[in-house]
Structure formats: C-alpha cells, structure tokens
Inverse folding.
C-alpha cells in the first residue's frame, strides 16, 4: 500500500498547479452535454476527468503560499476524521452532480444553470468556512469557471 501513499503525494504536489484549479470547472460543460444527450458513459468519463485533472499538470516550482495553505486545509479535511456532518457535506458533491445531470437530462437549461451557480456559491462558502482567508486563492478559478459555463450555456 506504500505505492498508494506515493501516488497521493505525487498527485497532490501537482494539484498545487493553478491550471488544475482553472480547468476543473470547465468539465461542467461536457458533463452537461452528455447529460443532455443522455450518455451515462460520457458523464462517467467526465467525472473521471474531473478527478484525474488534479494531476495533469506538473507540480509548480514555487506554490502560492495562500494556495498551499488552502490545499493543506483541504488535504486535512479529506484525510482527517469523519463525522456525520462532514459525511453529509461531502455527499453534497455527488448530489450536486445528480441534480445537474437531472436538469440537463430533462433539458431544463434554466434549472441546470441554477444548479451550476448554487454549486459555485456553495464551493465558495465551504472554502471560506474551512479555509478562512486562504479561500481567496480559489475565488478566481471558481468565478471564471462559473462565468464561462454560464456564458456558454446562455449562448447555446
């Protein structure tokens, strides 16, 4: 099992690259497309893309200190003890994906856009609640991702 720890350390170092933060929200668009087309395979592959995108880019030579502090909090959150509250909060992620899939599966663009924006807002709230001022490091990727997703979906 040592290889799993090695892999986690390797992937986590790459997650410090801001490009992995900026690309992640853009996966919402293909996910919505595949839900609209009722392609479960496409939706699953998109989620795999989201999960793997944290290590697509090389580890930065020098990480932003605020981002590194936020990621340290995030790592502690993921690897630390689990309570019922934390479990329920974490389950909101697959619930969000299910709501998003349901909206576009039913071709309800407005509901889908609302789900995207509520998800982005909840990510920001969660980040400030657990990360304090370090959460400012994730605001640009979240906001830009939401703007791009909204723009593309409103255009379509």
């Amino acid at each position: 099992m040592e290889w799993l720890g090695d892999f986690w350390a390797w992937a986590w170092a790459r997650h410090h690259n801001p490009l992995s933060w900026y690309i992640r929200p853009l996966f919402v668009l293909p996910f919505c497309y595949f839900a609209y087309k009722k392609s479960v395979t496409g939706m699953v592959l998109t989620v795999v893309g989201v999960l793997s995108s944290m290590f697509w880019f090389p580890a930065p030579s020098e990480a932003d200190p605020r981002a590194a502090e936020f990621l340290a909090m995030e790592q502690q959150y993921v690897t630390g003890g689990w309570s019922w509250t934390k479990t329920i909060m974490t389950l909101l992620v697959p619930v969000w994906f299910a709501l998003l899939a349901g909206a576009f599966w039913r071709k309800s663009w407005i509901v889908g856009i609302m789900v995207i924006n509520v998800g982005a807002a909840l990510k920001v709230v969660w980040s400030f609640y657990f990360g304090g001022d370090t959460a400012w490091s994730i605001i640009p990727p979240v906001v830009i991702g939401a703007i791009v997703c909204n723009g593309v979906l409103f255009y379509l």
